Every structure is written in C-alpha cells, then in structure tokens.
Amino acid sequence: MTKNILGWLAWIAICFLASAIGSAFTFSQIPTWYVALIKSPLNPPNWVFGPVWTLLYTMMATAAFLIWQKGWKNEKVSEALKIFMTQLVFNVCWSILFFGQHALLSAFFLILSLWLLILLTTMKFFRISRTAGWLMAPYLLWVTFASYLNFSVWMLNR
To answer: Cα 26–145–45 angle (5° rounding)?
Structure first.
C-alpha cells in the first residue's frame, strides 16, 4: 500500500515538475504579451487553463503510475514510459517556445510533434492498461484543441 502511494506521488511530482517549469515561462507572459495577441473566438478565458492543466497533469501522472505498476523490467512498460517522458519534455519545450520565445510557428510544429508523441503514448498505454489509455485521452483531445489555438494565434498575429 505504501509503495503504491509513494509511486503515485512520485509520478505526480514528475508531472507537476514539468508543469512548474512550463509555468515559469508562461505566467509572466499572460498579462503582458499574451493578452495583447489576437486570438480565435474559440479561445477560452485565461482562467480555464489552470484547472484544465491541473486535471490533465493529475490524469497523466495516474496513467503513468498504472503503467509503472506493471513492472519497469517489462519491455513494453519501459518503452511506454520512455515515450511518456519524452512527450513530457516536449510539453515543457512548447511553453518555452510559445511563451518564452514568442516563436509561434516553431511552437506550432513542436505541438504537432507533441501530439504524435501523446498519441503514441496513449496507444502504448492502452496495450498495457485500458484505464491508463483512457486517462491519456483527454490530454490528447486538449492538445488537439491547443494545436488549433496555437495555429490560429500564429495566423492572426503574423
């Protein structure tokens, strides 16, 4: 029981560390640079992003934990978690490109790569645990929407 709680907390810490790094590039830009951008009419209000990402990172961590529980020595598990960690790095890099560097087009190409990595992670997770796969699905959907938002911001602000 303790191992399970500690394992889940470790995955929570990993995912929220990624969130914290990305946020370091994001928060200062929202009231200054980001607020001045022309955005899609479908762009949600800024307050929506925090709760959505908190839920998504929690679901991602839980999914990774469920896979990790199957045993790191299992080749399918280790491969799936390596891809999971790679997509997490891409997630952070997107925040750096979009908010930190204001590189909207580069961020768009990166988010497309991120989307592919999330899809691959989700497929790998489904093969090991259907629950873990389903926990990744909202993240994939959100990044699909975020890709549209990224593209529209680039198009509207060229």
So the answer is: 55
DSSP string, 95-122: HIIIIIS--HHHHHHHHHHHHHHHHHHH
User: What's the domain count of the chain?
Assistant: 1
Instruction: Kindly report the CATH number assigned to the domain that includes residue 102.
Output: 1.20.1260.100
pTM, entire model = 0.96
Q: Which residues have CB under 8 Å from 136's CB, separation 6+?
A: 59, 60, 63, 118, 121, 122, 125
Q: Are 115 and 144 in contact (CB under 8 A)?
A: yes
Q: 118 is in which domain, residue-wise? A: 2-37+46-156
Mean pLDDT by 10 residues, the chain (158 residues): 90 98 96 97 96 98 98 95 98 98 98 98 98 98 98 97
Q: Within 13 A of 57's CA, how many CA atoms are on the CB side?
A: 23
